[in-house]
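User: Fold this, then the next.

Assistant: Folding the first:
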Amino acid sequence: MIDLRDIEAARARIADVAVRTPLVRLHGAEVPADTEIYLKLEALQPIGSFKIRGATNAIRTAPAQARGGGLVTASAGNMAQGVAWAGRELGLPATIAVPDHAPRAKLDAIERLGGQVVKLPYDEWWQAIVTSRVNGIEGLFVHPVQDEAVMAGNGTIGLEILDDLPDPDAIVIPFGGGGLTVGIASAIRAMQPDTKIYTAEPATGAALAGALAVDEPVEVDYTASFVDGSGSRRVLDAMWPRVRALVDGAFAVPIGDVAAAVRLLAARARVVAEGAGALATAAALAGRAGSGKVVCIVSGGNIDPAKLAEILRGGDS
């Protein structure tokens, strides 16, 4: 777990950058009976994603000497924007390694913030996440997942949820590498230990669901999809013990259900969610998180306009 004191310190440290996002109830006949679904709208952050919290906290806590050579990260797009945002604030160059399937909308956003994009094949990009370095590029590597300062920044979401809804029955969190899950779950476990913590992944890359099934990280089939901010071939070894100790279950969500959730969020809540941002809602709408008060983390809204239009017209991939 991340210490609650570190999460509370992160809230003060990033208060001038990260928006205190609203928690709003989702209404509609699609919501299961005996269930109240609440949306934590991280898509409303300045970069359209929760990643600004962890990136800012990690970079602001790093020694000035360590940051002096610039910033580096490996990201599908949203952490990249968080690092580029913080780099621009500090006058530091930011180099971002992205997988070759990263969506154009996220690449454009990185470049608008002054970040330099380096495209890598997926396996090479994943290796950068595993090793915490990008070959041939120097600078402070801000790990998108397993940096404790990043997780503490992410945990501020949990504090805000309990400020607004002190007694949630369950919280569903989109799972990519686990940094968001560990951060939020650490805050919730410290303050409201009876709340269930679930994760949601695309069925096309449900590494945590696969790991929990056999109680150890395993390789799973992975296929790239519009849910680019979540899903992988394997849970990071360094994150497995942290995640295993904090979660009550993991849901593998069909891509079609994610697309339907994107459409419903737009129609009912007037919220634009990217694929990963709609995962938790898709799981809750299917009744998988149980009844009562269920909080869904809408982690981001950075989706290509053309892909969003296709999904709103009924496309499922």
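Now the next one, as you asked:
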Amino acid sequence: MTKLEKLLDRFLTKLRDFTWDELTKVLNAFGYKQISAGKTGGSRARFVSLDYPPIILHRPHPKPVLKRYQLDEIINLLKQEKLI
């Protein structure tokens, strides 16, 4: 099993300690790229792809751990687009 496969399994199990860096690696594997949300974007982050709808969410702080609802929303979107 490759590192990406292990990370994807970890992502799909919705662990409480899934981090922002891990999410960016998963989304990059699906062709998403992170772009800044502009001058007043603050903690908002946007992941865009040429083939799929954008993913917009708040970067967690002060700890880099994602909240459960964020994981649920991203997993649902990826399932709708038949990426997972």
